[in-house]
Amino acid sequence: MTTTAFFSESGRFFGLYRMTLRRSRGYMYLLSALIAVFYPLQYALEAFKPLRADANAANLTNYHLYGFAENYTILTGLILTPIVLLAPLVLALAFNSYMHSKKAADVYHALPVTRGTLLMVHAATAMTIIAVPLAGSTLLVGVMQAIRFGPDPSHLFFLLLDLFGWLVCTFAIYAVTTFVCVCTGTVFDSFIFSGALLVAPPAVSWIGLALADSFLFGWSGGGIRVPGYLSPVTLAVMRILDGMTYGPEQGRMAAKSGVALLVWLAIGALVLLAARRLYRVRRTEIAETTASRGVLQFIVKLFGVAVCGGMAGLFTYLVQDPERAAPYTVMWTAITGLLTYLVLEAVLNRGFKTLVRRLPAGAAMTAAVTLLTLIPITGGLGYERRVPDAGGVSAVEISYNGVDGERSSVLRVKPFDNPAALQTEYIGSVLLKEPQDIDCVLSFHQRIVEQGERSADSWPEDDPYVYGYTNITYRLKNGQTVKRSYYGASVSAFLELLPLETQPEFLAQTQPAFFNRGSDVTSWTISNAYDSKYVQKSWPAADSQALFDAMQADLLARTTEEIARPQGALIANLQFLADFPPEGAERFSSSGAFAVTDKTPNTLRFLREKGVLDEIAADPVRCIAAGVVAETVFAGGSGAYIQTYNAVGVTENYAEFKALVDELRRSADTAAPAGSAEQAQSLDSSKLSLFEDPDDIQVLMQAAVPRWVYGEPVAYVTLWFDDASAGSALVPLERLPDSLRARIEHPFG
């Protein structure tokens, strides 16, 4: 009678809530202590740590603080996250454990409250136990942040958003676990099924993405963050990791995770309402029974087969030769998937009685997972060979900055008041809309598809492989996008992009002469063709702009053949340095380089008018020796299918190079008789030769070029002058007389 009176009418919910909260205060005390130690205490230790006497205590860069609100330490992220995420799971299992005991269920169901009210009281109690310590710790961190670094509205906003994120994620975890508790008959089954439902969806998605990245040629690798939004567990972790990004990317990540939080808030509410509805009609007889059948067990088993089978396949791929890993991946996916099903069947049914009867279902699940694994291995249902039709493409974005892309970086500069506030963003791609430019990219893509994927060392010597991560994004006229990514391509494929180097649309996005201003240039460095002598000039802004204009005209007049295999005489090399514009710039390069040849008349005329060519002239007569390294493979930069050479060769010291050549000859003499074919072959393999004849030296110097197609035979020449200076040159062997070329290819023959 006392119980009935106490919980009468509207006071039933709040009365039961207060009593349940009072009886569960131990959970709150424990969770409060753990959160306090690993959140505000860790923040205080980092924020109030002693700094150097000259350090600015209010400058956040002096502290190792992370997160959108810069409120986490590394230890907080590693320890606090699992504590908070485990709390709703533990509380849901504890508060709903009575459902899994027939005697306890009879006692609870005898209370003068509806089952729905009982379920919601436990949910409210659990969220209070979680919310109070989180809110208190967040408030404490906010106060310490304001004391140490001053009030900051943005930090306060992100602190509140962070608290909201924790509450939403824990609420969703509690709702899912409660739903499972209603559907199962034991605490063990509830724990296993809840964990599977919360972790398996993102795990399966990430495994699928990993398989696509491993086997699917051209896979763009996009969407790696999307699986993190498929579970409140991984969403909470993703928010911690997203907070470690900087710049505009951090704002985009915060917006995406904010939308995901709202979605999971709605999902959690719907799941909890569904659990309440199911609980009203739940039979007490379910308690203490195992989940031997049903949709929930089927889903958990399928997730188990997919996760374990997929992980085994990926591990096999990692330990095998990638070219032969496909059959082993499929085999171990099937074997591990079936074994996983058998283990789950035995564990969930507490024995082996049902194994034989359920084996066909396990075989079907394993077959389905294995077939899905075969999709990326066999080409992704035509994904690998699919190239958009030119008529359906409105624009294309490609991560290619041209043959000079390795010599200057294109940046986006935000406006700034002082250098300390400078923010830049690297621009690694160009957007092309002109039909002829789109055709170039399509030809490049088609060539890659036709040649297919193979190991780098299996390409022919006359068409070698060039490493260079290339992303292509087609914007179709129907509003869709097509993305492809490649780790590299052959030289012949990259040469399909060469016509872009003559197009105004492409040059305007890649060449500093088109978007830099002369007023930002601080200095010019002009060196001769061999970089053995240089001068520095600080010309007025008008002159610098005039030089940029001259370079523009010469760049627009270039032909593809002159870019790939220059035939003109190399005269000088230009380099500039520029200050970042305070007002910002959509495209900007702080430095850049330009080769001056007799095919660049406008730039050449400017330099002649300034008289700098006479200051840097190199007299071939004064060159006393040339050290040559003959190669067909050049270790250039990423995507450097057109190679340059601006470094001195094996050594800057003439005496050391000569001693090296002599040492090679002596070593060959001891290994084989002097003058024998074996000795000549041994010496020729070194690819080193030394020329001291003035006529040979002059021929080498005259054959120097600024660039050449990667993979074609070239010589890297180091020049030594009588004034102790040294220079270098890139010399294609095809530009040399046959006799001199033979002596370079067979220096001791």
From TrEMBL:
Keywords: Membrane, Transmembrane, Transmembrane helix
Coiled coil (UniProt feature): none
Signal peptide span: none
Membrane-crossing segments per the record: 27-45, 72-95, 116-143, 163-184, 191-212, 253-275, 295-319, 325-347, 359-383
The name this protein goes by in its record: Uncharacterized protein
